Amino acid sequence: LSILLSLLVPAHATRSPDCGGILTPSGLSYCKSRPHTSRAISREGRQQRLSVCRNQVNSVTVAELTLTLIPDAGLRLSIDVDLGITPAPSTTKVMRLSILSDLHVEMNPEGNLEMVTSACKTSLEEMQSTEEMESKSSSSDVEKDINVDKICLEVSKLLLLPNERLMSLTAQFPVTPSCQVQYLPLAAPMFSEQGITISLQTTFQVVGMAIPLPVSPVPFSMPEPATSSPSHLTLAFSEHFYTSLFFALEMSGAFNMTIPVSRASEGNNPPLPRQLGSLFQEDLPVTLQAVFRSTPRVVLEEGKAALKLFLTVHVGAGSPAFQNFLSVNVDMTAGLLLSVADTRMMISAAGIEEVELSLAASDVGPVPAALLEELFLPTIRAEVPAQMNVVLSEGIFLPHISSFTYTDVNVVIHKDYVLIPCNLKLQVRPG
User: Which pTM was predicted?
Assistant: First the structure.
């Protein structure tokens, strides 16, 4: 398989997006309002106090933090920090340090998204003092003593953790032991009043090599965001995304199936054609080996997802040396059930909606279609989706940032794409 993949044309680097997400203003508010954000700023402020002020800083308290969307530009971060300063013995001042910084997100040379600061401004004013008769000059001395310019440099350090989490967006996630999925941003996000929109392209690796995915017949673009969404985040996946997933699993061999069939003498199975009896010296169990003759295809309609399978089922006997004596083409359509658990999309093939069998090759002469269906259709209908569901049972990781999971999920299937409105939940690790 690795030799075969090495001969394939590498995946095209300029493919159009096949999925993405929109972080809404309410999602942005959730991210910035977590208690750990203020704690991180306070901790960073205490650690850096000697570099911004030669006086003793007793306390650093975040009074207010706002993060505002600036359409077509980025974000505006506003932080008000109260500094408890001791400029002299038995004297304590509380100074309000206000920091205003513009943020934007760009793609670095490694292809990761990175948040950077620009246009930082600071101001400082005295809030209260233990000395009521303290002179104005003393207050201005403290202000001069604080290195306001250096504070802006320290603001960028507050972005280290968010940027680490942004890098986790492009991590490789396992689908099967030999197949991994990766989501790569195509460009820097777009900022609008509706939220932050990011377009992604999905790549799959099989045994460590990127595989060329089928070309999407229709370029995908992120659906227009709703004017006001109560959800923190809306994920979107194109029809082509799902077809690419099944193509990758087929390429990895995950869907190759061996299906045992009960012996003709057991149960109520109809007897095999009389011609088969002369092929074997003893009563051997019949086995079906199913392989794809064409890529599985996912079709999305309003409120419904279907999986179209194009198989060739080889009928034979013998183990370990399989002897094929009959091949049957099977075209079948199964319903697809989609849901989300944590950060994984759970996919399963439901009931078979349509199935067609036709004789592809035979070493035992012609076999009527009605007999093929009578002999093999019940087994194929039951076993093919069951074995595929074993492969799909672990789910596929959705694009996500480390420490965040998805809750209050709703999966909405539209024609050609799937929307997943959800809320974010931050899992704060101890320490």
Answer: 0.83
